Amino acid sequence: MAEVLVITASPRKKSNSAKIAEELVKILQFKTSETVNINSLKITPCSACGSCVSSFSCVYKDDAPRLISKIKKAKVIIIASPVYFCGVPAPLKAFIDRNQPEWERHNKKTSTVNKKGIIILTAGGNEKKYFLPAKREIASMFAVNGIKTLKVLTFGGMDETGAAEKSRDIMKKIRAAAGSVNGLR
Ligand SMILES: Cc1cc2nc3c(=O)[nH]c(=O)nc-3n(C[C@H](O)[C@H](O)[C@H](O)COP(=O)(O)O)c2cc1C
């Protein structure tokens, strides 16, 4: 069981959001970490069949329940995603929607808050409004899984592949952000 589970959502090979997550994990010195790219998984979109209302489980036995199990075992969960039309990319959104059984559990108050989460978002633009829907989508998924969002790190001007790696300012911002993440351990 890894101490920190990193879920990345970019389909790009030299992803800025994934690079930022990698740097943050290094700086925070977790004992063990596991990284999963959502694009490598098979996740069927929720069909709103309503089965999970009473069963608390999903009729689809694909990679989504497996990833939810990994989330349940990790202490810290980091989601690193690009912003697409202000929200998260479709594969990550499909996974978030498949957390409906966890929402049902949470709604019936059978879940507890005992985990920590960090959200990393990159976008082409810099305005705060571009990040808000994506932040809310991820934070609400965190909440139903008993994960407290400790920090939301947003990085604009990240269109160019490899921009995060090349920029000293970004690396500085990651180090500063790491220093300001309180309550992880
Ligand atoms: C389909 C698509 C939609 C996008 N929508 C937005 C957007 O709404 N606002 C924004 O500022 N950037 C937008 N972008 C730019 C990405 O968020 C940006 O390039 C991001 O830093 C890429 O991260 P990555 O390197 O981890 O893939 C979009 C890019 C794509 C491909």
Could you characterize what this model shows?
By secondary structure, the chain is an alpha/beta fold. It is 39% helix and 18% strand. It starts with a strand and ends in a 6-residue tail after the last helix. The chain has one domain: Flavodoxin domain (Rossmann fold, 3-Layer(aba) Sandwich), CATH 3.40.50.360. The chain has helices at 16-28, 52-55, 63-73, 90-97, 100-107, 132-144, 163-166, 168-179, and strands spanning 4-8, 33-37, 76-82, 115-122, 147-155. The protein has 8 helices and 5 strands; from the N terminus they run E-H-E-H-H-E-H-H-E-H-E-H-H. Flavin mononucleotide (FMN) binds at residues 10, 12, 15-18, 82-86, 122-125, 130, 158-159.
Descriptive key words:
Rossmann fold, 39% helix, alpha/beta, globular, five-stranded parallel sheet, 185 residues, binds flavin mononucleotide
Morphology call? globular
Mean pLDDT: 94
* Small ligands present: flavin mononucleotide
Percent helix among the residues? 25-40%
Q: Would you give the CATH topology?
A: Rossmann fold
